[in-house]
Structures are given as structure tokens and as C-alpha cells.
Amino acid sequence: MIATNYESANYPDSSRTHSPDSMNIQRSETRLSMSDESSNLLLASLSPRYRAALLSRMRTVSLPAREVMYEPDETPKFAHFLTGGIASIVGTMSNGASAEVGIWGKEGMVECFHLLGNARIPTRCFMQIEGTALRMPYKDLQREFRENDEMRECVLQGVQSQGAILGQLAACNRLHEASERLARWFLMVRDRIEADNFYLTQEFLAVMLGSRRTTVTAAAGALQRRGLIRYSRGRIHIVDPVGLEKEACECYATVREIYQNFYRVAVS
Q1: Does residue 158 form part of some domain?
Q2: Residue 191 belongs to a domain with what CATH number?
Q3: For the chain, how are helix, strand and coil distributed in percent, rounded to 5?
Q4: CATH assignment at residue 94
Q5: Is residue 149 part of a domain?
Q6: Which one, out of 19, 78, 103, 121, has a CA that is 20 to 30 A from the CA of 63?
Q7: Is residue 78 located within the same domain as residue 135?
Q8: Which residues contact 240 (CB under 8 A, 6 or more apart)?
Q9: How far is the CA of 199 from the CAs of 36, 57, 118, 228, 237, in angstroms?
Q10: Does 125 share its domain with 192?
Q11: Could you report the per-residue pLDDT of 181-240, keeping only the tens digit for each?
Q12: Cα-flanking dihedrals φ and ψ of residue 2, to 5°?
């Protein structure tokens, strides 16, 4: 079920993603390269033999910004192991208000929560920063999860780590100021795409903060005046990552440690 309130939410809706204009953006699909298989942390944590068998059934796809990964309450068609870019998990209320509740980068598999059982997943996930992924039919990956201990252990470890991050961010969004949260979020994106330059619209930053655009403008302006970032028309450049980390709330250090050790248990 997709609520019509998506049309008024401050992030791209599925009608825009699947409009004729957007269909002009052709997703490329190619064979795997060595860099593909090593850049996704979950796949890299698998044993070489099993990873090779799994990769033989995958394809590399390019994912433009706004590409929908999954919709609320729907079973995904594909399983995506991101190798670049950022996917945002967004929750929407009945009045159309929306806020980001999590992100995925190259640390795992975007649809991993769907594998755990038959519970409804009320969130929506789409590409906020364009990227690439290794993908396979979701039903095939679901079968691997059920039948292969190694895959199941890695997915469960990833879900546990992501759940810990989501819990930390829930507290962060309630307790910390907008500029601190914005600094934390910029750093989280930087860690995952390994770049100091990226593009994010003001509308989405409002979704990320769960705030009004005026709040985003004020928070980004404060960071820019301190010489930590440059921000113009959605183009963000992190000028001083060390200074930005000092400006960020304590949650950044917590989620960074979790991110850096996503599959430590699985590969030990």
C-alpha cells in the first residue's frame, strides 16, 4: 500500500521515479568486476568459495538518484548489495510529514530486514546519492538466507549492527540540535562514499533532519560560517572534516565505530 500523501512529502515519490521522463535514464547492467565484489562489506566478509558462487549469479547495476529500492509493505523484486552511493530509509506519517530513519551504503544489503520474517516493513527506501550495486532476484537471495548458514550469519550480523545504529539515531534526533545532527549526517555520508563532495537537495536535508527547510538553511549556514563546509544549490563540499567532527554530536563516534566493525563477529 502506497499512501497518496507521498505526493506532498518532501522527498521524491514513486510516480516521479517511474514517470516517462525518468524512464529515459537507463540503468546499465554489466558483468562483475573485481572492484565490485570487494567494495561491499557483507560480500567481502564471505568465504572466497561461497562468495564466488554467489557473485556468478549477480549483475552490476547503476542506480540513479531517486531510484526506489523498495516501497512500504511490499516484497522487493531484487536484493541490492550497494557498492557505491547512499540509499535512504524514510518513514512517512499520515499527514505526509516524513523523516529519514536510516541509511545504507556499501556496508550491507538494502533489503536485509525483509529477510527476517513476514512482518510488514512500513518504510520506503530510495537512492539519495547515485551509485552502483550488485543485485540478484530477491527470492533467490531469500532462499540463500534460509539454506546457507554463512549467508544467514552475515545478514543477521548486518541487521544487528544496523539496528544498533537506528537506535542511536532515534535518540540523536530527539536530543540533539539541528546543526549537530547535520554535521553528524554529512560525516556518515562521507564515510560511506569516501568523498568530500556530494549533492543533496535542501528538500531532502529537511527530510533527513525531520525539520523545516528554514531549519536546514540555518543549520547549514552555521556550519558554512565556521568554515566547515561549502553549500550552494545542493552541492556540498566538506572543507574541514576534523572540525566538522568536533561540531557533530557524540552520536557520530558511536555510529562510526559500529560501521567500522559491521562484520567483525561474522569474519572472526
Answers
A1: no
A2: 1.10.10.10
A3: 50, 20, 30
A4: 2.60.120.10
A5: no
A6: 121
A7: yes
A8: 227, 228, 229
A9: 23, 32, 36, 16, 9
A10: no
A11: 999 999 999 999 999 999 988 888 888 777 888 898 899 999 999 999 999 988 999 999
A12: -120, 115
pLDDT one-digit tens code per residue, 48-99: 999 999 999 999 999 999 999 999 999 999 999 999 999 999 998 999 888 8
Q: Which domain holds residue 241?
A: 177-248
> 174: which DSSP letter?
H
The pair phi, psi for residue 249, each rounded to 5°, is -70, 170
The DSSP bridge partners found for residue 206 are none
The answer to whether position 169 is within a domain reads: no
Say if residues 208 and 100 touch (Cβ distance below 8 Å): yes
Cell 560511506 found at? 192
Residue 260 is assigned to a structural domain of this protein: no
> Of 113, 140, 167, which residue is a domain's last?
140
Identity of residue 165: I
The answer to whether 67 touches 126, Cβ cutoff 8 Å, is: yes
Task: List helix spans (H) across the chain.
Answer: 14-17, 34-39, 41-44, 48-55, 138-147, 149-175, 178-193, 202-209, 213-225, 241-247, 251-260, 264-267
The Cα 59–Cα 62 span in angstroms is 10
> Are the C-beta atoms of residues 130 and 64 closer than 8 Å to each other?
yes
Shared domain for 10 and 135, answered yes or no, is: yes
Instruction: Give which of 101, 107, 66 is closest to 83, Cα–Cα.
Output: 107
